Amino acid sequence: MIELRGVTAARGPGLRPAVRDIDLRIPRRGHTAIVGLSGSGKTTLFSLILRFLQPQEGSLLLNGQAYEESAPWELRAKIAYVEQETPLVPGTIGENLRFSHPEATDEELRRVLREVGLDGKVDSLEDGLDSPLSPATVSGGERQRIALARAILRTPDVLLLDEATAQIDALSEAAVHTVIRDRDRDRDRARHGAVVTIAHRLSTVLDADAIIVMEAGRIRATGTHETLLATDDLYRRLISALRINATQPAA
Ligand SMILES: Nc1ncnc2c1ncn2[C@@H]1O[C@H](COP(=O)(O)OP(=O)(O)OP(=O)(O)O)[C@@H](O)[C@H]1O
């Protein structure tokens, strides 16, 4: 479980805090979605959880242990992060997938490629996993799927996913959701660990067990889709901005 206690943090020295007085508990299992307008502090929460940023006030804990008491690598081994704009390393598909886990076998790489629906594409390439990966040859959606495949090579305790805002193809979108929630219980990440998304799509928000609404650096409200729809005006506006019929029942 990740816990933030009274956390206030700025993005740099001399800057005003980007998040203030954050009290948040992310359960060990399940899907937590963060929503909010641009600049409300969603990415800053991820930076804090990843320890890229230190709080000015307050503290963070992972499974009851204060962040300062663990080595950065210990935290990073438990937390996987899928960025919105995934940096690809120059090299082959295999090298990109093995970036954090050089010891992974070809069989393991195939398994995660299958999970994100890229196995067919890789198999169709003459050199398979040894094919060079160039940012010019993969779409934004495929990039995020490669990052996701990399993140799930070893089951992380916490999977942080900053969902792509750019239009991505339907297959990629579906693959991302399947990784969070799979009909196959063994592969359902939210059943085995914590999945935290910065959600930019309706389907992701609807999927969440808990939703956090950020506003101007603070947590404005927390709840399920149904309770927030009934009680929170900003949530309703965010949902309609996602061009959704707010009365549509949760899928
Ligand atoms: N690298 C940075 N340097 C300085 N200020 C920053 C930096 N990144 C974000 N901020 C500021 O911190 C505040 C919170 O930004 P943050 O990126 O966490 O919001 P967000 O909700 O993730 O927004 P978006 O949806 O646009 O990514 C904003 O006022 C923003 O201008």
- Helix/strand-derived category reads alpha/beta
Q: What hetero molecules are in the model? A: adenosine-5'-triphosphate
Outline the low-pLDDT stretches.
Answer: 245-251
Biggest sheet overview: 6 strands, mixed
Strand order of the largest sheet: 6-9-10-3-11-12
* Backbone CA Rg: 18 Å
Distance between the ends: 27 Å
Helices, by number, come to 11
Please provide the ordered H/E string of secondary-structure elements. EEEHEEHEEHHHEHEHHEHEEHH
Number of strands: 12
Keywords: ATP-binding, Nucleotide-binding
Domain ABC transporter: 2-241
Protein name: ABC transporter domain-containing protein
Organism: Actinocorallia libanotica
Task: Tell me what you see in this structure.
By secondary structure, the chain is α/β, with parallel strands linked by helices. The protein has helices at residues 42-49, 72-78, 93-97, 106-115, 119-124, 140-151, 170-180, 189-192, 202-207, 225-231, 233-241, and strands at 2-10, 17-26, 30-36, 57-62, 65-66, 79-82, 91-92, 132-133, 158-162, 194-198, 210-215, 218-223. The chain has a six-stranded mixed sheet with strand order 6-9-10-3-11-12, with helices on both faces. A four-stranded antiparallel sheet has the order 2-1-4-5, covered by helices on one side. Helix 4 packs across helix 6 and helix 6 packs parallel to helix 7. Residues 245-251 have low confidence and may be disordered. The structure holds adenosine-5'-triphosphate. The site of adenosine-5'-triphosphate (ATP) has 12 residues, from helix 1. Adenosine-5'-triphosphate binds at residues 11-12, 15, 18, 36, 38-44.
